[in-house]
């Protein structure tokens, strides 16, 4: 059962949007594309009445309308007993509305501002599915009528019985073909919806921040809340948890994103040069300063200044930092002129600043100035469900960097990674995956690290690190024992190790590995 282009162009379409420019744009696009039966309304309260009269094949529905929003319109349509299929394509500019709309019964969505090519494609695909459903309903009614008529006629003649059986077989074959086509289109639509849902979810991954755990989702939510504001943010967490990545995410989602994000690593600046680096200097301000220098605060004017590891800043500089955060003004070294700047501050530390304040190593007033909106980044050991996502991310990254094509991660390898406590957090995991990619051969990721933590190593008086060849020997023997010393085949050690059987045998000979 085929749907022609003419069928699609003659379908009944209703455009519902309270913004007249959007209505006119969509109406003009559809008419220019050849659609002949396009109706529009800017009043969402009349949609149900219009649909009962016209039985629309597609409703383009805006979600944000003052009298009655799109979700209420969909609920009213679903409550109408004549609606066994909700042919709604929602229009929205809000990413968080997309999944909600699909769950409310919408078949698809179009993002604002409109991509006209995308709009035409999605409308065409939805109408094709809708018209197939309508033809199927019509065929079902026709089939029932035929069966009833033939049943009466069967009592009159055996000859007609044979003819009617043949006719029914043909109708059933046509119905099966129709169901097959609908299933294919339904699978295609589901695949597109799955992709779109993944695209929506991916928008909340904040660029390089990988993960879907509850703890990380709470971080994402806080980033979304504070990013549009001008409030000072304090990022707390262990080394390697991604504080710098979160700082970039906050800046890129703020109104200052077109201005620079300037990073200051407080651990790397020499004490004698911190003031000139932050606030700048005039020529001749001190011995050796033979040129004028613009400070980081001036460079960040209108943008964001990220003070990484703020807990390392000397006490004498903290007072000057407090003044510029509080008043937005400072003087360059060697100049009496006061400079005013508009800078948003994001600070980060892996220290407990409250303890630092108690110990007299950090100013209490500066702490309260920085602690306006604290975000604590969870250590990797508290969100181990994110490890598999991070491993895949780093595997793609280092495959490209090193030029390998490793695409198999065994459950044993993943278990090994998930059992480690990761004192170095995501940074340590990234280094471990880079090492594993370098050392792995074939297409399977081989984890050869022992993952001894610093605390554990400190308890060993004379630590002895095994050579790489010993680690490889132990790994090969372990896999061979698991496979019952079977080398080839689907359950063989060569496939698990990502090696050719001949390569594995050569390594066994070289290392003196024999069946035990």
Helix content: 40-55%
| Strand fraction | 5-15%
Instruction: Please state how the strands of the largest beta sheet are arranged side by side.
Output: 2-1-3-4-5
Rg for CA atoms: 33 Å
For the report, how would you describe the main beta sheet?
A: 5 strands, parallel
- How many beta strands in the DSSP annotation? 12
Describe this structure in words.
- The protein is α/β, with parallel strands linked by helices and 516 residues long.
- 25% of the residues are buried.
- It is built from 21 helices and twelve strands.
- The chain has a five-stranded parallel β-sheet with strand order 2-1-3-4-5, with helices on both faces. It has a five-stranded parallel β-sheet with strand order 7-8-11-6-12. It has a two-stranded antiparallel ribbon with strand order 9-10.
Give a short overview:
By secondary structure, the chain is an alpha/beta fold. Helices cover about 50% and strands about 10% of the residues.
Which helices and strands, and how do they pair?
Blueprint: H1 5-9, E1 12-16, H2 20-32, E2 37-41, H3 47-54, E3 58-62, H4 70-79, E4 88-92, H5 95-104, E5 108-111, H6 116-154, H7 158-202, H8 214-226, E6 233-236, H9 243-252, E7 261-265, H10 274-279, H11 296-299, E8 304-308, H12 315-327, E9 329-331, E10 338-340, E11 344-349, H13 353-358, H14 364-370, E12 373-376, H15 387-402, H16 411-419, H17 425-439, H18 454-458, H19 468-482, H20 493-497, H21 501-511
Parallel strand pairs: 1-2, 1-3, 3-4, 4-5, 6-11, 6-12, 7-8, 8-11
Antiparallel strand pairs: 9-10
